[in-house]
Amino acid sequence: MADIELARIALPRRVYTVSHMEYAIDRINWLYKHRNLVKGLKFMFEPPVLRFFDGRLEAIDNWGKDLAEAFKKEIGNH
Q: Considering its fold, how many domains does the chain have in total?
């Protein structure tokens, strides 16, 4: 198995507006700028087939809280 696995973003045509895409791009850029906070995920349950559809993941080192705090600090509570 590879040391790193990447995610693919697939979008259906004629569903989302330009503003939807701009928002998604903005959030992905924000996440990239804070990539040092993201530690990764590990499988808690991995079925033999379609593991990314039916598998269960858990954050390594509970990094979600740190990422949420960084978001609140910059954006605030809305």
A: 1
